[in-house]
Amino acid sequence: MRREFVLTLSEAQQHEQYYDDIFEALKNEPYANYLGTELVELKAGFAKVTLLPATHMLNTHGTVHGGIIFSLADYAFAAASNSYGKTAVGVTNTINYMSASFADHQLTAIAQEVKKTRRLAWYRIDVLSNDELCATMEAMVYRKNENFIGLE
Fold it and tell me: What does the pLDDT profile of the chain (152 residues) look like in tens digits?
């Protein structure tokens, strides 16, 4: 009996080999684009995204609405957790708001992988307002079997 060997890439190798496809897919996320976010850095298990809030993103008090900060953190989380080209879907998250942000403040969300197993992965996301920490999020994804960049 003849055996065939199939060479499979590690997730880190898949990230490197298909980086352009992965980056483009994540960069073109419809809701993130609607908000005006920018994916500025993507590594395996890491993402950095920015947003300059517009005045319609403010709340009654003249500060950036918590939903905007949450959405920015969630997009960074999605980009970092999908950075291997493997479909990852959010399961849970908790966000803590620490200080206000304003329309003229650049928001930056940095998502970093804390731990990854075959099925689950955990992330910490920090949101900075003009380089001051304004929120943190902890989040977990379920990692599906399929790749979203067409490797199957």
Answer: 555 544 567 899 999 999 999 999 999 999 999 999 999 999 999 999 999 999 999 999 999 999 999 999 999 999 999 999 999 999 999 999 999 999 999 999 999 999 999 999 999 999 999 999 999 999 999 999 999 987 64
In CATH, what number is assigned to the domain containing residue 86?
3.10.129.10
Q: What is the DSSP letter of 3?
A: P
Q: How far apart are CA 61 and CA 19, in angstroms?
A: 41
Q: Report how many helices (DSSP H) and strands (DSSP E) the chain contains, helices first.
A: 4, 6
The dihedral sign for the CA sequence 109, 75, 16, 118: positive
State the residue range of the domain holding 66.
11-147
DSSP 36: T
Rounded Cα–Cα distance for residues 118 and 129 (Å): 34
Q: What is the pTM of this model?
A: 0.93
> 119's torsion region: left (phi>0), alpha (psi -120 to 50) or beta?
alpha
SS3 62: coil
State how many domains the chain has: 1
DSSP state of 55: G
In the structure encoding, which two tokens stand for residue 56, read together?
């319609």
